[in-house]
Structures are given as structure tokens and as C-alpha cells.
Design brief:
Layout: H1 6-62, E1 65-69, E2 83-89, E3 92-98, H2 122-133
Antiparallel strand pairs: 1-2, 2-3
């Protein structure tokens, strides 16, 4: 075989196979670590949503509110994020999408109350929350910031 002893070829093949095996093992460890990181991030995100939703549930119990279902035709939202809690603050409507897994926090809120989104943006929503928190009861309509 062109002057290369069979033992040298076998050793080279064995070494290459060993390196590939180590690379594959390291790759599996890296993938497992990414999976663990992904699970930890998901749990942290879920925890943050639960904290937020506990406060939203409190607001919903203090002000007129209802749970409405996001239209099925709108494919922007996943099926388990189609519930929306609408709350009528003195400063205007606010709303949040609620994950199915946290609907128990809203068990005391009536479903299908007929509320529809008034077009408020996220910025308007939090301006309305701030205005309500700091005593400005001037209604804010979509497109207008509370004074």
C-alpha cells in the first residue's frame, strides 16, 4: 500500500475515529447544556408572566372586566395565547393576552362579556395604568395620551 505500513494506517484510522467520537460526545454535552439553559429560560419567563398576571388579575377584580377570545382567524397568536383580559380603568381600556396555563388566576372574571379592543397600543395601555395609579381619571382614547 504505497509504502505505508498497515499498522500506521490502522492507527491513523483509530485516532481519527477516536477524535470524531470525542467531538460527538462534546457536541452532545453542548446540546444538553443548551437544552438545560433553554428550560431554565422558559421557567424564568413563565415565572415573570405569572407574577404579571397576578397583578392583572387583581386589577381585573377591582374594575369592570371580562375575558374575551382572540379571533381564530388571526394566526399571529398561538392557540394557547388566545384569551385576552379586558379591563375598563377610569383612564381607558387596558388588555393583556393570557396563556391557557394561567387562566385559573382569572376564574372570577366573566368570559365573553362583549368587550372589544379599542385599538390602544402597549404604550397607551401603560400610560393609562400610570394615570389611574396616580389619580388622573381623565379617560384616554386610543391615539391620545392621558394628560
Amino acid at each position: 500500500m504505497d509504502g505505508v505500513p498497515l499498522e500506521d494506517m490502522a492507527r491513523d484510522v483509530s485516532n481519527a475515529f477516536h477524535r470524531q467520537t470525542l467531538d460527538a460526545q462534546n457536541h452532545r454535552k453542548e446540546v444538553a447544556a443548551l437544552h438545560i439553559d433553554s428550560d431554565a429560560l422558559r421557567k424564568e419567563k413563565d415565572s415573570v408572566y405569572e407574577e404579571r398576571n397576578r397583578v392583572v388579575a387583581l386589577l381585573a377584580s377591582l374594575f369592570p372586566s371580562s375575558l374575551e377570545r382572540h379571533p381564530d382567524e388571526d394566526t399571529e397568536w398561538e392557540d394557547d395565547w388566545r384569551w385576552i383580559v379586558f379591563i375598563d380603568l377610569p383612564t381607558g381600556q387596558v388588555s393583556w393576552h393570557i396563556h391557557d396555563s394561567q387562566m385559573s388566576l382569572f376564574a372570577n372574571i366573566a368570559p365573553h362579556g362583549g368587550r372589544v379592543w379599542d385599538g390602544h397600543t402597549t404604550e397607551e395601555k401603560y400610560a393609562r395604568v400610570s394615570a389611574a395609579a396616580f389619580g388622573d381619571s381623565t379617560p384616554s382614547h386610543s391615539g391620545e395620551k392621558p394628560s
